[in-house]
Amino acid sequence: MTNKRPNIGGQALIEGVFMRAPDGAAAAVRKPDGTIVAKNMKNLVPPTRTGILSKPIFRGAINLIDTMKMGFSALNWSAETVEEKKDEKGKKKSSNIGMWLANIGAVALAMVLFAWLPLRLASWIVSLIGPSSGGVEQFYIHIIAGTFRIFAFILYIMAISLMPDIRRVFMYHGAEHQVIHAWEDGSDNLALDAAKQTPLHARCGTSFLMYVMIVTILCYTVIDSLVYLATGVSPAAHWRVLYHLPLIPLVMGISYEVLKTADKHLDTSAFARSLSKPGLWLQRLTTKPATPEMLEVAETAAKMALGFDLPSEVEIVEEKT
């Protein structure tokens, strides 16, 4: 196994995979007629960060924003590409407006279900238990709220995994990981060797979400304890949400550093492997072993992102200038 190959990562798309390398990015999908279509997205790769934005904690939050921007762009392209017919310009504009409204609604619903409601329920449960010191009370509230979030997220994943289209996305998620494993093991025939690999990978967005939910408990316990010490009052759920929101980049930055550190020391540290286990357990819900056809799509995206030439049968979409 070689450690000199550059790291690659990505995400599942609709009937495809997005891959990012240090100096490139690409998406590939399989159309209904079986053709693999690939798009070079190197133009979306942000410039190398310098100064404070390259420092620990800060780099995690910035990297998350960059990843989300590239991911949304690739996801939208994949949805448009696998459609049988193209919409007219007016219809496409209406569809984009509808998509933005749906996204706003989804964010608002997520804030209620994963931010306000867990805190409200946790505060109510702690009030039933009885009085306790400020710091201990805040810890209890966030332990209960965090547990609620984790179980709610697991139930949500289990529910949507019953949908055939989502199961295919989870299989492409597995294809992404399997091809990355093959690349990291030094393979030159990624699709073929990826079939032998596990669909689980420690450096994954699902693992990152698990770290976020755990770090949230610790970080917000400290913050709310300080608020309690300053005011003498345990904040209501809606106030907690309001001042927790600006702290999300901090939580994301810490979670990113934990993820990167654990992944870096997996081969040498039992503690790092223990840190990775909750995320890998959760990935058993969000990844499935891929078919050979899916692995070919993931290989195409990886090779284009890395700058390799693609087979002539792959349809390449040029970026509009």
Topology of helices and strands:
Blueprint: E1 9-13, E2 16-21, E3 24-30, E4 36-40, H1 58-82, H2 89-129, H3 134-160, H4 164-184, H5 190-194, H6 205-231, H7 237-244, H8 248-264, H9 270-286, H10 292-306, E5 315-317
Parallel strand pairs: 4-5
Antiparallel strand pairs: 1-2, 2-3, 3-4
Helix pairs in contact: 1-8, 2-3, 2-7, 3-6, 4-10, 6-8, 6-9, 8-9
Characterization of this structure:
It is built from ten helices and five strands. With 321 residues, it is α+β, with helices and mostly antiparallel strands. It has one domain (9-85, 107-317). It has a five-stranded mixed sheet with strand order 1-2-3-4-5. Strand 3 (24-30) and strand 4 (36-40) form a beta hairpin. The radius of gyration is 21 Å and the shape is elongated. The two termini are 40 Å apart. The relative contact order is 0.17.
Largest sheet: 5 strands, mixed
Whole-number total of structural domains: 1
> Order of strands side by side in the largest beta sheet?
1-2-3-4-5
| Residue-averaged pLDDT | 89
Q: Characterize the overall form.
A: elongated
- Fraction in helix: 55-70%
Oligomer: single chain
Which segments are poorly predicted (pLDDT under 50) over 5 or more consecutive residues?
85-94
> Total helix count?
10
Beta-strand residue fraction: 5-15%
- Give the topology string: H per helix, E per strand: EEEEHHHHHHHHHHE
What is the structural class? Answer: alpha+beta
Number of strands: 5
* Radius of gyration of CA atoms, rounded to a whole number: 21 Å
Give the N-terminus to C-terminus distance in angstroms: 40 Å
